[in-house]
Write a structure and sequence with these properties.
CATH class of the largest domain: Alpha Beta
Helix content: 55-70%
CATH architecture of the largest domain: 3-Layer(aba) Sandwich
Number of helices: 20
Structural class: alpha/beta
Bound molecules: guanosine-5'-diphosphate, magnesium ion
Distance between the termini: 25 Å
CATH topology of the largest domain: Rossmann fold
Strand content: 5-15%
Number of strands: 8
Order of helices and strands: HHHHEHEHEHEHEHEHEEHHHHHHHHHH
Shape: globular
Largest sheet: 8 strands, mixed
Number of domains: 3
CATH superfamily of the largest domain: P-loop containing nucleotide triphosphate hydrolases
């Protein structure tokens, strides 16, 4: 989608004014791009008509460049279509009950975990996860694995195959144990059918949740809209969760779903990891669709993951020349926690295209981690003691070559030097550069 819009908007660049002809030409491209992204035909058409009216009504010569104006018009309109300001979730109940709905494989269980983790990190919330997918024993296990990973309690009842009873028991358990948020993970089927709809509707009626969320895989395109409509007809849900927005952005689902069911998109899922969750901001999504990157999200995510206390400790160590491989390892873990590297890089304006052919993932760190793990505590704290016989031993232990060990040592030395330099004011400059 971004590529096509880039091209469409490019048509206008270099023109002195917006004439009816080049507006029409551009909007034809914009419409095609929207259709390609599975935006409903009618919605795409209405969209371009509105932008056209606005474009022709502007006195472009006195304000911005026509190309920029067009970008702004398309962006504002996209933002509007996806729904104004970001909306939070209702956590006013005690406990607040959040019900997940959606097809099998849409990402309900994963998102339940992400949301629990997100709320838990807010400190005032103590969530409980409730396993109501009773059809596959593996589904209950999956939620337990997620719960263990994020340190959130999971309520389940393996012998019981009545999801209404389990959800009620889960809420009672939450009340008795001081949980103020209950997240109910439910079963979905591969397609909308009566059995699934009856079941989710029964749970919904029985527990009267504060929030009913509809989880949808953004890669399912036009189908996502039909599914959303079917669930909304039964549940009148409060919000949409758009999952699997990592990699190639499919903004189309966001636009179409919002237009058809008129419910806010509240969160997006951008990866399989528990940290890959973002609040949905229509204007950022519009930026992303327009290929401008999502810098604000990127910066926020990085800040959230980076522990300030650790950062200060690290600064002291660098200043005293005590930065060692254990610290280096911690840094790698911080980076990995931020989610898939490619997602992050993809949010940088202009970098999205560049990254298409390059595959950076967590595996990139495997060799480095193996080498560091093969070092003794003394070697990690004071890399200077690593002589050639130690290098041989480390190489053998980590399944790498002496060259690779050498390379890491060299990189490490360079990095230590650079960090020391950044302490003296350079760091601030670098931050400024990143923010521009
Ligand atoms: P459920 O059947 O609705 O509970 O779906 P799951 O939570 O089990 O997710 C189905 C698959 O999608 C799993 O392999 C998840 O790891 C994966 N998944 C869920 N959310 C995301 C996401 O935001 N991005 C990516 N890439 N994968 C996801
Ligand atoms: Mg599930």
């Amino acid at each position: 989608l971004s590529d096509k819009l880039d091209k469409a908007l490019h048509v206008l660049k270099g023109h002195g004014s917006i004439t009816e002809v080049n507006v029409a030409e551009t909007l034809k491209e914009v419409r095609r791009a929207l259709l390609d992204a599975d935006v409903n035909f009618k919605i795409a058409k209405e969209f371009t008509v509105r932008v056209k009216e606005k474009a022709l009504g502007q006195d472009v010569l006195t304000t911005l460049q026509p190309g920029q104006l067009m970008v702004k018009l398309v962006k504002d309109e996209l933002t509007e279509l996806m729904g104004g300001d970001a909306e939070g979730i209702n956590l006013s109940g005690n406990p607040s009950v959040i019900l997940m709905s959606g097809l099998q494989g849409s990402g309900k269980t994963t998102f339940s975990g992400k949301l629990a983790n997100y709320l838990k990190n807010k400190k005032t919330k103590k969530p409980l996860l409730v396993a109501c997918d009773v059809y596959r024993p593996a589904a209950i296990d999956q939620l337990h694995v997620v719960g263990d990973q994020i340190g959130v309690e999971v309520f389940s009842d393996k012998g019981n195959n009545d999801p209404v009873a389990i959800s009620k028991a889960g809420i009672a358990h939450a009340k008795a144990n001081g949980h103020n948020v209950v997240i109910i993970d439910t079963a979905g089927r591969l397609a909308v059918d009566e059995a699934m709809m009856t079941e989710i509707s029964n749970i919904h009626k029985a527990i009267e949740p504060q929030e009913t969320l509809f989880v949808v895989d953004s890669m399912t395109g036009q189908d996502a809209v039909n599914t959303a409509k079917a669930f909304n007809d039964i549940l009148n849900f409060d919000g949409v969760i758009l999952t699997k927005l990592d990699g190639d952005t499919r903004g189309g689902a966001a636009i179409s779903i919002k237009s058809v069911v008129n419910k806010p998109i509240k969160f997006i899922g951008t990866g399989e990891k528990m940290e890959a969750i973002d609040v949905f901001y229509p204007s950022r999504m519009a930026d992303r669709i327009l290929g401008m990157g999502d810098v604000v999200s990127l910066v926020e995510r990085a800040q959230e993951q980076f522990d300030e206390v650790e950062a200060r400790k690290l600064q002291k160590k660098i200043a005293k020349n005590q930065f060692g491989f254990d610290d280096f390892l911690k840094q790698i873990q911080q980076i990995k926690k931020m989610g898939n590297m490619k997602d992050l890089v993809g949010m940088i304006p202009g970098a999205g295209k560049m990254m298409k052919d390059i595959d950076i993932d967590d595996d990139a760190f495997k060799g480095i981690e193996a080498i560091i793990h093969s070092m003794t505590p003394e070697e990690r704290a004071n890399p200077a003691v690593i002589n050639s016989s130690r290098k041989k031993r480390i190489g053998k232990g980590s399944g790498t070559s002496v060259q690779e060990v050498n390379q890491l040592l060299k990189q490490f030395t360079q990095m230590s030097k650079m960090m020391k330099m950044m302490q003296g004011g350079g760091g601030k400059r670098m931050m400024q550069m990143m923010q521009n």
